[in-house]
Design brief:
alpha+beta, eight-stranded mixed beta sheet, five-stranded antiparallel beta sheet, 16 helices, disordered C terminus
Length: about 625
């Protein structure tokens, strides 16, 4: 593999990796720097270099009289070195916006970046000369996993390079052949994965969700567009007319109803060492609900007061709605805290109206409202108004079922990489519906410490996609999980997370639909001998098989290196500090990656990171 037939853009695709200094060099020189880099073209031909200046010059040479795309995995780190060099040396200037005419008129002194409101970097455009440009892109936005995981899917034979924060390089470091080989392997993994992506889609996009959403739209138009359909400027495709863009004003009103999955640790079991238990997962939860429910389409129809005070004819025409209201309430005895955590003042489970943030205004879909009434005692309620929609039955059913079938065929054939791509496409297709119209420009500058910092400037909001669809997809997913929770009961329920249930005991539960393969059914993920659940997304299972006993640890924010130090369920304890986690900060030269202690059972939103004798320690706020 290494060449894509009949795809002219493939010759403009390059794949790169940096190796850079860490803590010991920073302690001595008070800056970080690139010590070696490699770039490969689509065929696997490699160019090596040592400094950021050499990399800059090679990019200028490579992009002469054309536009190229350079892919890094986790672009944020390597681009920090590029951006610092641009600004500190004043060789390339940042521009907030560069119109397309710059491609024809630039003199190689400008670049711009694509960052979201959280300053997450998606890409950068550097105009290197007249009619010449480099687009930096992030392959982790296409394959959102580690290089090691991608390597396994590709069945790649070579080892990979992992950054060592403790290595000292000094001024004149001479890499060994083995070090060059490892760095080249990293770029090769990116190259081979992206070739598979290009072969599948025949195009270049910035994110996996962009690929998946475009495929969804294309299939919908093919299946539903009338023969006499004529595109307009407002509605370039039939899909755009059926699912029109949500204005920023309406988006702002509907946003409280757009929530993610439910994560919950039963207080009865939290932090305790448990005996045998089982874990169930839904087979492709979000794709399933996209293929099997009523969904909104058309205009957002506003109403005042209570939806149920509307005439029956209106409710028949518009069966889906989001209701805004104020309420005073408490959790019922035996009730489950079903309200989305985003409505909470402290991002925790909501047990009463006292837990709500702000003025306590809530906005719930008709699906979430049903669960609200099941689980909470309402003392007072005041309805404000909301929006309602006409409904269509499972508009993406055929698309989802065809992808699920394709994924099953990939599993049977053993093509792990294709299976992974189809899985990502299935799970990424709905996210674009919820894309925010609100954006900001992050303008970088060199501060007094000679590191890159950012100023934020809000942009004019711009309608993106059809938010009601995203709202109802996620609401239906919560509905599936909540109904399973009611079936299992709180006595057996230990933990839930979005599409999974962890329950005590090995006795089969007869009230949830179980199938290892059928779309939307609950799959038995495993039976474990011991377990412990400390916090949201922090738990451990001990399994036994013919080869012996082994641990499976899930701990968000805890590195694999740190998790490997845990040797038993007893060692997975509340308050235990784990070393080996990585944290990055901007310093002179780029990002400095350091090791950091993290504490099990702590909420990231409720901690402070403090320096103690040059080590980073987490303390509760």
């Amino acid at each position: 593999m290494g060449k894509i037939e009949n795809l002219s853009f493939s010759e403009d695709q390059y794949f790169a990796e940096f190796r850079y200094t860490g803590e010991k060099d920073y302690d001595k020189y008070k800056r970080v720097s690139v010590v070696m880099w490699v770039v490969k073209n689509i065929h696997g031909d490699v160019v090596r270099g040592y400094t950021i200046e050499e990399f800059r010059d090679y990019m200028i040479k490579l992009s002469k009289n054309r536009s190229i795309v350079v892919w890094f995995h986790n672009l944020n780190i390597p681009f920090s070195f590029i951006e610092h060099h641009f600004l500190y040396k004043k060789v390339v200037m940042f521009k907030k916006k560069l119109p397309k005419r710059y491609l024809e008129t630039t003199f190689g002194r400008e670049y711009t970046t694509i960052r979201n409101y959280a300053n997450e970097l998606f890409g950068a455009e550097w105009f290197t000369a007249n009619k010449s440009s480099v687009s930096f892109r992030d392959s982790s936005k296409i394959f959102p996993t580690s290089l090691e995981s991608i390597s396994r899917s590709l069945k790649y034979k070579g080892d990979i390079y992992e950054h060592d924060t403790k290595q000292y390089y000094g001024r004149f470091y001479a890499p060994s052949d083995h070090e060059w080989s490892l760095l080249e392997n990293n770029t090769d993994i990116i190259r081979l994965a992206m070739i598979k992506q290009f072969e599948r889609y025949k195009s270049v996009k910035m994110t996996r969700s962009a690929y998946a959403f475009d495929a969804l739209k294309l299939r919908y138009n093919m299946d539903n567009q009338p023969e006499d359909w004529e595109p307009t400027r407002e509605y370039p495709t039939y899909f755009d007319k059926v699912f029109p863009k949500t204005s920023p004003e309406v988006y702002e009103q509907l946003r409280p109803a757009y929530a993610g999955g439910i994560v919950y640790v039963n207080p009865k079991y939290k932090g305790k060492k448990l005996g045998r238990g089982m874990t169930y997962d839904v087979n492709s939860l979000y794709p399933y609900v996209m293929s099997d429910r009523l969904y909104p389409h058309g205009d957002n129809v506003e109403f005042k007061g209570s939806y149920y005070s509307l005439p029956a004819a209106w409710r028949d025409k518009y069966p889906l709605y989001v209701q805004s209201f104020h309420a005073t309430f408490t959790l019922k005895d035996g009730g489950f805290p079903s309200l989305p955590k985003k409505l909470s003042a402290n991002k925790d489970n909501i047990y009463s109206s006292d837990d709500l943030h702000g003025f306590g205004t809530m906005a719930l879909t008709n699906i979430d409202m049903e669960h609200f009434l099941i689980n909470y005692d309402i003392e007072e309620i005041s309805f404000i108004g909301g929006y309602m929609w006409e409904a269509v039955e499972a508009p993406f059913k055929d698309h989802v079922e065809d992808m699920y079938k394709e994924r099953s065929e990939c599993k049977k054939s053993g093509d792990k990489m294709d299976e992974v791509m189809v899985k990502y496409d299935m799970n990424s297709s709905y996210g674009k519906f919820g894309q925010s119209p609100f954006a900001s420009i992050r303008s970088p500058y060199i501060n007094f410490e000679k590191s890159v910092q950012f100023e934020t400037e809000a942009e004019e909001p711009k309608a993106k996609n059809y938010l009601p669809m995203a709202i109802f997809i996620t609401a239906y997913a919560r509905d599936v999980l909540l109904k399973a929770i009611y079936s299992v009961g709180l006595d057996r329920l230990i933990y839930v997370d979005t599409d999974s249930l962890h329950i005590i005991g090995w006795e089969e539960h007869g009230h949830i639909d179980i199938s290892q393969t059928e779309l939307g059914k609950w799959k038995l993920e495993g039976k474990w001998e011991e377990g412990k659940f400390l916090h949201d997304k922090q738990y451990i299972h001990r399994y036994e098989d013919e080869a012996g006993s082994y641990l499976v640890i899930k701990a968000s924010g805890i590195s694999d290196e740190a998790k490997a130090k845990i040797k038993s369920v007893d060692g997975f304890a509340l308050g235990k500090e784990l070393l080996g986690n990585k944290v990055s900060k901007q310093v002179q030269g780029g990002y400095l990656i350091t090791d950091m202690a993290k504490t099990l059972g702590m909420d990231v939103d409720k901690i402070d990171i403090v320096a103690n004798n040059d080590q980073y320690i987490i303390k509760e706020k």
